[in-house]
Amino acid sequence: MSNPEIRELEAFLALADELHFGRAGERLYLSQSRISQLLRALESRIGGRLVDRTSRRVRLTPLGERLHAGLRPAFDAIVETIDEVREAARGVGGVLRIGFQGSANDPFMRAVTAFRDGHPDCAAEIVEIPLSDPFGAVHRGEVDAAVVLMPVRDDALVLGPVFSARPLALAVSDRHPYARRPGIDAEDLAGCPLIGVSGTAPEYWRLAQAPVVTPGGRAIPAGPAVGSLQEGLALVRAGRGGMLLCDPTADYYGSHAVTFVPVTGLPESSLALVWHRNHETARTRGFARALADVAEATG
User: Fold this and answer.
1) Which SUPFAM superfamilies does this one have (predicted)?
2) Which of 12, 56, 120, 287 has the most crowded CB, counting CB atoms within 10 A?
3) DSSP 8-state code for residue 178
């Protein structure tokens, strides 16, 4: 029996990811019927069913699960190797568009400089992405990669280096009672409305930036929701609530009318580099390596 063709394997992997013949076809620019043909050909070569298909759902069979578990990492490694060799042959060129949230901190800018030095034929463009839509620019292809606030729970995105773990501070108006304290505990957040994030940011991400309960289970009042950090700080100055921010952001956006009070009892805030797994390039991998090196050197 002949070995599977590369197109059959691509069709199977796309179907395993999407669990939908139409979406798998769209990913590979093929018709739904062509995906079905390729799958049947692969099943014939394997000698067993890889996918169960009903009117309501598509799912992998145990045999399909086994094939997917072994095939996916091997296939990705082949594609990555080919891309790296191709890029090495012609050099990493073009433009790398990197998005970032908030302030472009020192590790990020050092990584940009290191990437530019190591890839002189590739231009690096920095694009600010809104607080209210941390992952949208990556999904839409407006940027090649983005530095965003954790957490990241999106199967379509590759989670690259996680860096800049820093304690949180509560930004409050200098008229707020907490402004006179040297620090507060996370349970004290029950006494201050938290300004949240509006827009298309996922709910889990918005709740991480403005939790609704303390670690001990006390309710935290909800303040207004904003689309940008500047809007949020304007409401802080007006006494409409507080915002949880990491130390570097607090230092960068410090204001005479805003006090940043250290908070204990909460996980540290971290940044991460993400990119879409279907749009990975040698450029994104090169920048991820540069950022990882900087993060390791700075601790």
Assistant:
1) Periplasmic binding protein-like II, Winged helix' DNA-binding domain
2) 287
3) G
